[in-house]
Amino acid sequence: MLPFKEQTNYHVEPFKPQLLKWIGNKQRFAAEIISYFPYHFGTYFEPFLGSGGVLGTLAPKMGIASDSFKPLMEIWQTLKENPDTLIRWYTERCERMKKGSKLEEYERIKTDYNARPNGADLLFLCRSCYGGVVRFRQSDGGMSTPLGVHEPINATSFAKRVQEWHKRVQGTSFLAAQFRGVMGMAQPGDMIYCDPPYSHSQSILYGAQSFSLAELFDAIGECKARGAYVALSIDGTKRSGDKICNISIPSGLFKKEVMIKCGRSMLKRFQMNGRSLEDEVVADRLLITY
After folding, report:
1. pLDDT digits (tens, 9 = 90+) for 154-207
2. Contact call for residues 218 and 255 (beta carbons, < 8 A)
3. Alpha-helical regions (H) of 30-101
4. What is the pTM of this model?
5. Fold of 6-229
6. Radius of gyration of the chain (CA)
7. N or C: which end of the chain has fewer CB within 10 A?
8. Which candidate, 39, 136, 122, places its Cα nearest to that of 77?
9. How far is CA 86 from CA 79, 107, 118, 155, in A?
10. Separation CA 42–CA 144 (nearest Å)
């Protein structure tokens, strides 16, 4: 295995069709993130999968993608194993919304999901809720995001996306698991991309309340010591660069830091009742161990 400095960085073409609407989705700038990956690596790991924007753009030949959120992983496992089932889940709920009141049907699906969290309902909710902000109440864990102002993608167009994504994930295994155990599987020369909940902006989102950044730093250190490559997306700047998110990063853990411009904050727009926020342009840090 060559030292990273002797390698040419990875290159992929941008991949635009999103499967899931999800706050923090990296698909628009996934190709830029991937450009910082080493040219040669073994298995690709993504232990905070979310909407899988980087995974879908990379389309690895060998990958292990995971998330602790079981309904979400039910979606990804079904995408790989039985894409027609995923299409049926979405189509059935689209038809129900067309036949009745859009708002009432959305609230009915959300109530069904909260009574029994499952991938079928979550799939439709994340495509139809406000901006893909999959938000949960701390009191009872129920999803609380209201209906979005946009029209959800129609079932025919969604089916085409499913088939395209199905092809791109054939080399990936999907696990419902905590990040530490999955990262512990990485071997020398493997590539790990981490996109965890952001401490400065995403505490209302799924899984963020119990996430420990310090524990993730420990896991990254262990992977680095074994010879795996790790790249981490984390809070960078808010308010068009006026606010730098202060995060205590262990000295010597990362060798490089770059800023990835992400555009305006959809989460902030949601919190401010839909107003367009010209001053809320954000950038993420991409921290690299190699």
Report:
1. 999 999 999 999 999 999 999 999 999 999 999 999 999 999 987 544 455 555
2. no
3. 30-34, 53-58, 70-81, 83-99
4. 0.87
5. Rossmann fold (3.40.50)
6. 19
7. N
8. 122
9. 6, 21, 12, 11
10. 40
